[in-house]
Design brief:
Layout (H helix, E strand, L loop, with lengths): L25 E2 L2 E2 L2 E5 L3 E7 L5 E7 L1 H4 L2 H14 L10 E5 L6 E5 L6 H8 L4 H19 L13 E4 L2 E4 L4 H6 L18 H4 L6 H17 L9 H10 L9 H10 L10 H9 L17 H11 L84 H23 L45 E2 L7 E2 L5 E12 L10 E3 L4 E3 L8 E7 L7 E6 L5 E6 L6 H10 L15 E6 L5 E9 L6 E10 L2
Antiparallel strand pairs: 1-2, 3-4, 4-5, 5-7, 6-7, 8-9, 10-11, 12-20, 13-14, 13-15, 15-16, 17-18, 18-19, 19-20
Length: 615
């Protein structure tokens, strides 16, 4: 990415993603029209009620669906959520708690999350922050009134609509909090927005949500998390033992936010008091009204984009065949009498480029190939004293050259998966035009699918695990190219090394880095372990685990947008797979080809390639 181009200048990803092959066509009579996103709890789809109102339908992940305790808690929390009727909450409309894959339907909110807004547009004005504070506090009043505590109030769980904020996923975190999965790589709640009592495993009360609201508002007003970033353990330590950093928060908001972020739950204000303070602030003017100008213009543009709903289910393109077709030789030319006259000989038309594969990363994918251009035809001089034309002997010669070129192209395509062999071009015998042998590496031209030699930065990195990361020159420039790293086994997380994705090297635990892939290795007296990959901060990176043998940075981008992963345990991000990582601030892409991920010892071997967007 050029230095003068900010992440917000990049085109936003599509809101409505096409359904993937493993997505259902409908759930309990709700026809699915598009993907809206995915997270730790499940996948979210766009659907409509029989009366035509848009809804968001969430299908719970299979790992949770198999846990009986989760099902019991999920049914209880959904029943509680259906009793919440706040204007600033996303209304729960329907559910299937006993289905094979439990699901939940809420009203569709045409707006981005606060996390997206701050990440793409920066801190919000004081007036906007106060209106958000008052609206979310009113949502908490409605949630707490039926005996529910949200437990996971964070910027990603607050959607921004034209008429105010909407709090989503209230109470559902409690259902997941009691499952065995929370001890094997799943984490409920975000450390940067957890209250001290929640981090310490103490009793959860409505004051827990007030603390999260204070941290959320501080982030919205400053663009910085009040307890900093870094490893989860470090953030949680600061939440419990240190005061928040509010230096970037406007002065008129600090007093109220400090009260919300008090360590003791009893010292925090109740939502009604927060609403009163926000309403009486001079920037608001005595009324919490969400008029047309309550949001910055770019956010309103994003809301408009999300309001343009699809009415027909988008069709994902069929997966690319595993073996590329071999073009057949052209038919033999007709016999032309010597007296026939041709005014010109046109070069053969190149076949159209193959359509891109569907963005389905669970389907088989072939390596991109370069199509050989047809050999150039030398002009045929006209005989003296005769009309300009082409004899039948010349046409026959041209046909043979075309057939030979088609056959060579077919041989190259059939060998495309193994890449070009070492060798070079050989000239024709004297008197003939140039020819390209099968062993000659083809050089891609603009618009061609990239195939780079193994030693180039954009080439294919294939560790012994048999996986690779294929980069292309279009829109990406390499920062790190196929750096192989060995991370030794460690006993505790404090001893683990981490990967600096920008520099392509290992750094010791506690060493700062701009963009870091960490390892969480926990040991106990009983010898049990839970090993998982993670970013250094909760909101630093997004991930996708790819099972294909190769992937490009652009394909990683699409996979993260359409099928993000929160399960980064060594059992899922395993040897033979690719881990795509996207930096949320720079949008850079890193691809870690995992060769070893030992669940017992925490030993990791991987090859890292990192790209920076250049357009």
């Amino acid at each position: 990415m050029p230095a003068d181009q900010s992440p917000s200048a990049m085109p936003p990803p599509p809101v409505f993603q096409p359904l993937l092959p493993d997505d259902p066509a409908e759930v309990a009579g709700y026809r699915l029209f598009a993907r809206l996103g995915a997270g730790g709890m499940g996948r979210v789809y766009l659907s409509y009620t029989p009366g035509g109102r848009p809804v968001a339908l969430k299908v719970v992940r299979p790992e949770f669906a198999e846990d009986p305790e989760f099902r019991r808690r999920f049914a209880q929390e959904v029943a509680n959520a259906q009793r919440i009727h706040g204007l600033y909450t996303a209304q729960v409309i329907d559910s299937g708690t006993t289905a094979e894959a439990p699901w939940l339907v809420t009203a569709y909110v045409p707006g981005p999350s606060l996390q997206q807004v701050v990440r793409e547009h920066g801190p919000l004005p004081v007036r906007t922050a106060l209106l958000l504070l008052g609206g979310v506090a009113e949502a908490l009043q409605a949630i707490h009134s039926v005996g529910v505590v949200h437990r996971d109030l964070k910027p990603a769980n607050v959607l921004v609509a034209a008429d105010g904020p909407r709090v989503i996923d209230f109470g559902i975190a409690r259902a997941a909090d009691a499952t065995a999965l929370t001890g094997t790589g799943y984490r409920i709640g975000s450390p940067a927005f957890m209250a001290p009592e929640q981090a310490q495993g103490s009793a959860i009360t409505p004051a827990t949500d007030v603390f999260a609201l204070g941290a959320l508002t501080a982030y919205v007003a400053s663009g910085v998390q009040p307890f900093g970033e870094g490893p989860e353990t470090a953030v949680l330590y600061r939440v419990v033992h240190e005061q928040p950093d509010l230096d970037g928060v406007p002065g008129e908001l600090r007093e109220l936010l400090l009260r919300c972020l008090a360590k003791s739950p009893g010292e925090r204000p109740i939502p009604a008091e927060i609403i009163e303070v926000a309403r009486n602030h001079p920037a608001v003017g005595g009324q919490l009204r969400f008029a047309d100008d309550w949001l910055p213009s770019p956010v309103n543009t994003e809301i408009t984009r999300r309001s343009d709903l699809p009415r027909n289910p988008p069709r994902s393109q069929p997966p690319m065949p595993s073996t590329p077709p071999v073009p057949s030789a052209p038919p033999a030319p007709p016999v032309v009498p010597p007296t026939a006259v041709a005014t010109a000989v046109e070069p053969p038309t190149a076949p159209p480029p193959q359509a891109p594969a569907a963005e389905a990363f669970t389907a088989a994918r072939q390596r991109p190939t370069v199509q050989l251009p047809a050999p150039p035809l030398a002009p045929v001089p006209a005989a003296a004293g005769k009309r300009r034309g082409v004899s039948w002997r010349t046409l026959l010669t041209v046909a043979l050259v075309m057939a030979l070129g088609g056959a060579l192209t077919g041989v190259l395509l059939s060998r495309g998966s193994s890449g070009p062999k070492a060798g070079g071009s050989t000239g024709n015998p004297a008197g003939g035009g140039p020819q390209q042998t099968v062993d000659a590496p083809a050089t891609p031209t603009a618009g061609d699918s990239p195939v780079a030699a193994p030693d180039t930065p954009d080439g294919t990195a294939t560790p012994s695990g048999g996986v690779s990361a294929t980069g292309g020159p279009a829109g990406w420039s390499p920062l790190v190219s196929k750096v192989e790293l060995d991370i030794p086994a460690t006993e505790y997380a404090s001893d683990a090394y981490r990967v600096d994705l920008t520099a392509g090297k290992l750094i010791a635990s506690g060493t700062s880095g701009k963009w870091v892939l960490g390892l969480h290795n926990t040991g106990s007296a009983s010898g049990s372990r839970a090993n998982t990959f993670a970013s250094d901060g909760d909101d630093d990176s997004d991930f996708a685990v790819i099972t294909d043998a190769s992937v490009t940075p652009s394909q990683c981008n699409t996979a993260i947008d359409t099928h993000p992963d929160s399960d980064l345990t060594f059992g899922h991000a395993a040897a033979g797979r690719l881990l795509c990582v996207r930096d949320r601030s720079t949008h850079n892409i890193a691809i870690a080809a995992i060769e070893v991920a030992n669940e017992q010892t925490g030993e990791v071997k991987l090859s890292v390639s990192t790209w920076q967007g250049s357009d």
